Amino acid sequence: MTNLLYLANWILQKKGVMVRFKNRYMVMEGFLDPNRDLMEDDPIVLTQFNVSKAIKDSILVNFGECGLASSLGSLQVKYVNPITKLCIIRASREEYQKVWSAITMVRSISNCPVLFNLLDLSGESVKTLIAY
Question: Does the keyword Cytoplasm apply (predicted)?
């Protein structure tokens, strides 16, 4: 069935009809170790780079190089708020379950324990998710 869909998309592209790439947006909440801020002078700050690296490392460990390569095409950390610890992550419709499971397996960022909780999963635009 998927080969038939790819063939149909290829035919439509050759005729000049654009095919829309479908994404899933995940709103995740990060829970950092509360004792970490009290112990050290420079508390951990969630950044797009830190979150993206942790997700990619988790995909590599849990799904291998092939799993990482298949999900890197659309994986992007769109938004991170270091104060509220909310993140918006984009993944393709075919790969979002793999990315979601890899995110739940992330246990630390920069040697600080962290857990992620999925708040919302949507196919809508990121602008509708910024309400969080």
Answer: no
